[in-house]
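Hey L., structure's done. Input below.
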Amino acid sequence: MMSLKRLKSIGEELLAIQAEISEYRKNVEQIESMMNSDLHCARISGYLPNLKIKLLNCMNQQYLLIEEKRDELDSLLGALQTLYLEQTSAIFCGDVKIAIDFCRNLKNYTQTPDGECPTLKFHEEHAISRMLNDLSIFAQ
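Output:
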């Protein structure tokens, strides 16, 4: 019963981390957009060096926040894999495997956070949601 509660909390943590990483990536895109549009204006008024440095520092900070999530994802991935191996109930095995694959994709993204952050595809979202709902019932 304890492993079911742990599995539920891992699924919730995974979704929360994905949302955080996605938010950090959006911040990077906004900063890149500001750099492209505001640098032209700053060049005219003579503030280019300071503005560019500030924007680059902000962008690097967002990348560091994304990288920090890698350790959390490593921990979640290990816990998911352990629970998957321990899980005797076939009900959850497929859903847990989907959660493991998504966690692995998200972790890989944190190593080179270029492009769009991985999001849950419909079947993944449905599987993880089903897993969390079923676990809520079984864990009580």
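The chain has one domain: 2-139. The radius of gyration is 19 Å.

-- N.
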